[in-house]
Amino acid sequence: MARNGVPVIDLQGGDGVAEEIVNACEEWGIFRIINHGVPPELLTEMKAVAAALFDLPEEIKRRTLSSEGGKGYLTFNPSSPYLEGFSIDEVSSPGDFCDRLDATPHQREVICKYIKVLRDLAGILGRKLMEGFGLAGDLFDGWNCQMRFNKYHFSPESVGSCGVFLHSDPSFLTILHDDEDVSGLQVVNKHTGELTPVDPVPGTIAVNMGDIAKAWSNGRFCNVKHQVWCLEPKTRYSTVLFVLGPNDKKVEAPPELVDSDHPRLYVPIDIKDYRNVRSAKRLHTGGTLELFSTAAQG
Predict the structure, then answer these.
(1) Using H for helix, E for strand and C for coil, what is the string for the chain?
(2) Which are the contacts of 151, defined by CB distance < 8 A and separation ≥ 6?
(3) Most Cβ neighbours (<10 Å): which of 23, 156, 178, 196?
(4) How far apart are CA 72 and CA 126, in angstroms?
(5) Domains of the chain: which residue ranges?
(6) Predicted TM-score of the model (pTM)
(7) Mean pLDDT, the chain, as a whole number?
(8) Which controlled-vocabulary keywords does the entry list (predicted)?
(9) CA-to-CA distance for 236 and 158, rounded, in angstroms?
(10) CATH of the domain spanning 2-248
(11) Confidence (pLDDT) at 67
């Protein structure tokens, strides 16, 4: 089942789901899932909590500012002039984030419950990816994750403008609950190079592959390029879980994905090193991977 070309996969569809997911990762780098196990009321509550946090006074929100790019409170900038964001950089211990914002007990409960459910979902997806390649194991066991809440301040003046510039994610996998009322997500079709809208489908969650997924799959997965475009003057919210990578080892393609027809394309990648290089080189659409290719290493 698909809408606008992007696959929609029933996560509880029985035999063949793992293969469907791998195929979607290879052809599109993005897909939507239904029967994902995230209660609809929790999705609604999380959106309401995020909206309330964004409504806090500026001086309180800035308590979560970080000196590291892409972390903490994300303020407006020239490349994303309509985007405001928060990130929980240690999802295993969100207490500091909640403390800094004076979150209520209810808000803390919703945030913690949401993180747990999405991490559980990430675990399921990781096992399905392994299964789809005929491998066993829990791919994302012990991996670091980051939670992000986004608010797009779209107005009549911003219609026809870019909310987030074209990029691929530096992570392995992104789990996205986009705004069911406001569209704007667009992805690049890897075959045609054209932008394809990924319109909201109520009750679904989107999953997309990042740069690290392409490296791990030995080039098989598409690290999909995407952007958010302002199509209408409505505030847009989204919540995102980034599955970044392991803290204590480098990421590389399993030996089962390397053979004479598929020689190893990338050297083992340290996640922090990769993000630092990508930021320093300002290569935001997947070009950083070429710096970690076996060909580039000589």
Answers:
(1) CEECCEEEEECCCCCCHHHHHHHHHHHCCEEEEECCCCCHHHHHHHHHHHHHHHCCCHHHHHHHECCCCCCEEECCECCECCEEEEEECCCCCCHHHHHHCCCCHHHHHHHHHHHHHHHHHHHHHHHHHHHHCCCCCCCCCCEEEEEEEEEECCCHHHCCCEEEEEECCCCCEEEEECCCCCCCEEEECCCCCCEEECCCCCCCEEEEECHHHHHHCCCCCCCCCEEEECCCCCCEEEEEEEEEEECCCCECCCHHHCCCCCCCCECCECHHHHHHHHHHHCCCCCCHHHHCECCCCC
(2) 50, 51, 54, 83, 84, 85, 235, 236, 237
(3) 178
(4) 26
(5) 2-248
(6) 0.94
(7) 93
(8) Iron, Metal-binding, Oxidoreductase
(9) 12
(10) 2.60.120.330
(11) 75
Per-residue pLDDT reduced to its tens digit, 195-253: 999 998 989 999 999 999 999 999 999 999 999 999 999 999 999 999 999 988 999 99
Mean pLDDT of 63-84: 85
Cβ–Cβ < 8 Å for 242, 171: yes
* Model confidence pLDDT, tens digit, residues 124-161: 999 999 999 999 999 999 899 999 999 999 999 999 99
Q: What is the pLDDT of residue 123?
A: 97
